[in-house]
Amino acid sequence: MYDPYLDQWTTLLDMPVANQGGVIASIGEEIFIISGTTTNDMTTGTILNTVSRFAPGIGQNGL
Where does the source fall among the domains of life (predicted)? Predict the structure, then answer.
């Protein structure tokens, strides 16, 4: 996560599921990842029917 006040990046925990090609949107401070696949090759990966939410105020990984 990037902190513009300190001009530094912090590594957070990995997401629970790999996601390639998902659609990303933000509302306020929260970031949403919608759908996508589980591999870099979008023709062979499992298509996800999920929405993941990252909310920095929740904890270390925000999920």
Answer: Bacteria
